[in-house]
What does this fold into?
Amino acid sequence: MDFTSGTSGGPRLDAAALAQADLGTNMWGSLTSATEAQQAAEEFHAAGWSVRRSSWTTFEITCACAEFELIPSDPVLFSGFVDPDRIDVLLSALRDMGMRFTVEFEDGEGREHVFRGEA
It folds into this structure.
């Protein structure tokens, strides 16, 4: 699929997430099962997430509770925002998609958490 800088449709951050978005970037990680950002973007799109090309090589991925950039690397890296009250929703979605991942998350009190998922 050829993504453009316009959105592919799909969900945007909902009101609850937007109310927390002033926290800024609060998660980082890698999709250890993905070797190409394009491939990972296609998997998110197939699962119903909003995807847009944010540069020649990066992709913005959005759902109701999270928005992050996929960064080309091997494995694919990402960073962005997740509603702190719904980190479990994001982790479950990644598992449901069959993705292996490492997610580093900073909660609203500044504590760091590391989550790993194996498909």
Observations:
- Strands lie at 27-31, 50-53, 59-62, 66-71, 76-82, 101-106, 112-117.
- The helical segments are 15-20, 37-46, 87-96.
